[in-house]
Amino acid sequence: MKENSSIPLCVDLDGTLVKIDTLHQALFLLLRRSPSSIFRIPGWIAKGKARLKDEVMQRITLDASALPYHQAFLAHIRKEHENGRTLILATASNYRTANAVAEHLGIFSETISSNVDTNMRHAQKLDSIKKRFPRFGYAGNDVADFPIWDEAEEVILVNPSPAAQTKYAAQADQVFIERRATLRMLLKAMRCHQWLKNLLIFAPMFLAHKFSDTETLAQATIAFFAFSFAASSIYVLNDLFDLSADQHHPRKCRRPFASGDLSIATGALLIPVLAVLSLALGILLSPTFLAMLLVYYAITTFYSWRLKQLAIVDVLTLAILYSMRIVAGSIATSTAASSWFIIFAIFLFLSLALVKRLSELIEMKGGSDMDNAHRERGYQIDDLPLLMAFGTASGYISVFVFTMYLNSDTVSALYTRPEWLWIFCPLLLYWITRIWMLTWRGQMHDDPLAFAAKDWHTYIIAALGAATLLFSI
């Protein structure tokens, strides 16, 4: 490796120093805060990329302290700075973002960045660098950096694109790579483990004892994947809207988009692909099911955009969305679902939604980002006892409603020994009480269903419940 400490090192920002495109993050944050901006963005684009960046960054301020930095590369340039080397932040990002990052890190002597008139990219960036520094080193990651690397005396590749790695790997002085398996990150972004929630679609079919009806099973399976792809599409959209909030969260900052392990552009492409797959499957079933799927998609989209910021409205919406899966399963399989069972589901999932909110508040309690949590979710730390009361009451009411279901004519007609189903009541009471006790102690994952999927108590209760169900039949 050549000794280049005597020449200044110019460092790119997007995709290099940070693992995301800051403009992409700012665009999604703008759309969430001001949905009407979607009609203004085409006009800004028509006036040029520099104008687009300036208009967006006038309205959005990214927290430089929370951005996903490439830690190994950042450690390297910090050491270079300590050794007296001159560092320049040379980026096509708007000057507001560049200045915020430079001020936060405190290692750059100056910045070269875009303004309302100039998009500091390709030749523009190279010309600006050469005017200041006849000799320089450059750290970048993509095709836009090719002209600058060709003129640089030091070439540093940071998470290089395949084209950059192919062309410059042999002459690179240093290479920093911090990538995760793309397929694994895609599946993580889609949250395939959350597809377990869509097993509720099979509930009407199983409660009607249509276990051996292959046509009904096929219909339920198609409905399951239709809802799963729709849910994954919304999860990705939600993560892109929530990038800034997630980057402040102690655990959610490790999500694929918030951490920079998946590009925001990949997420933006994944959303319509999953939505189209969902609708294609929905078309295979009835028009009524397709309408239900579209309503579900609309509500979840609106939830991601606005409703999740409204206290109480957010958890009621989640409870309704869970119950819609049961109704959708009933429609897909042409199987009637008991109104008592649907009401039971609403109260049970309202309780679990409140578990989710309470656990989030407890996790962030006393942290430096409580103000951010208040703004993003609509709850305050003083709401903890109230949420606990609402959630436990809702959970216990669901058990009461379940007893009403057990007394219904539907149960008497379907089960030869319906009295055995009463065993479900203490099982449910134990499970709900335990969930809330763990939540209050701060031992609950902020997704109770994800917690349940790994909890051996839940599996024992589920096995006892399944045995009771079979014996009752």
Could you explain the architecture of this structure?
With 473 residues, the protein is mostly helical. The protein has 2 domains: 9-176, Rossmann fold, CATH 3.40.50; 182-472, UbiA prenyltransferase (Tetracycline Repressor, domain 2, Orthogonal Bundle), CATH 1.10.357.140. It contains 22 helices and 6 strands. The protein has helices at 22-33, 41-46, 49-59, 71-82, 95-105, 123-132, 146-151, 162-168, 182-190, 203-207, 214-241, 243-248, 264-284, 287-305, 313-332, 339-364, 370-377, 384-406, 409-414, 424-440, 448-452, 456-472; strands spanning 9-11, 87-94, 110-114, 137-140, 154-158, 174-176. Helix 5 links the parallel strand 2 and strand 3. The longest helix is centred in the middle third of the chain and has 28 residues, at 214-241. The mean pLDDT is 90.
In short:
This protein is mainly α and 473 residues long.
List the helices and strands and how they pair.
Elements: E1 9-11, H1 22-33, H2 41-46, H3 49-59, H4 71-82, E2 87-94, H5 95-105, E3 110-114, H6 123-132, E4 137-140, H7 146-151, E5 154-158, H8 162-168, E6 174-176, H9 182-190, H10 203-207, H11 214-241, H12 243-248, H13 264-284, H14 287-305, H15 313-332, H16 339-364, H17 370-377, H18 384-406, H19 409-414, H20 424-440, H21 448-452, H22 456-472
Parallel strand pairs: 1-2, 1-4, 2-3, 4-5, 5-6
